What we know:
9 strands; six-stranded parallel β-sheet; three-stranded parallel β-sheet; TIM Barrel; Amidohydrolase; 10% strand; 15 helices
Amino acid sequence: MIIDVHGHYTTAPAALGAWRDLQIAGLKDPSQAPSVASLKISDDEIRETIETNQLRLMKERGSDLTIFSPRASFMAHHIGDFQTSSTWAAICNELCFRVSELFPDYFIPAAMLPQSPGVDPATCIPELVKCVEQYGNVGINLNPDPSGGHWTSPPLSDKSWYPIYEKMVEYDIPAMIHVSTSCNSCFHTTGSHYLNADTTAFMQCLTSDIFKDFPTLKFLIPHGGGAVPYHWGRFRGLAQEMKKPLLEEHLLNNIYFDTCVYHQPGINLLTEVIPTKNILFASEMIGAVRGIDPQTGHYYDDTKRYIEATQNLTADEKHAVYEGNARRVFTRLDSALKAKGL
């Protein structure tokens, strides 16, 4: 199987965005605040948005299954308060669950959390539990910066995050470390904020002993790890100066990287520097970069082409990147596939 571990519902029906606009307007004028019941999205609307977009491209590009979560830039945890985020997360997670119910052979859900700046992360646990136990979610997206580019939260090594980690360990689910929209004009959302966050999260783990406290905790750092593979020597050297163990021992039993890198030299670098066991196939299709590369004539986010073309992976290693590693990291996904005889 070819499993894409990084998909978002970026093509959700327009009614979802319209409802969100009303929710945001209601923060200033409560008379405009919509009820949850007022959001009406039919199964046919969901089918149309998926069949003409993600599912069509999956079939064209040759991927079999996508781990599907709410649109990252829509999480916008900096808007409103915890109740705002709680209602919004519940709606978005339910929609992804409905996608997985309508297309069970192609999509399996992962959850966004109802994070809010300055609010105890433990408040997210009820939504996490619901999504795992009722919706069959196989992972979560964890935002290390709910402030939207101002970085007001403590680092991922801070013990305020530990209640979430405890639940992750209990359920044996990984977290994709994924920020949302930047409201800081210094940081473009997808061009800098996302990649900065990937690099920052890795460094927060490097400088801490978080994985001594949680030896089975698993983080997936998306977008190829931001700057991490390109500056692997820098991180190795910094760890050495801090008297940390070698990175292979210190971090690579717990941290994984995806292949949302949108050119061949980038994938070549990733697969040369990072051990194959730590790389999971992903595309984030219809996401941050949706155009066609004029140098190749193919879509930038058609990442399977880069995996096929790299000279750094054997056939067995490609199988690990495409399927084996995902099943090992997302154990609930593996169980769901085995229950189907796959």
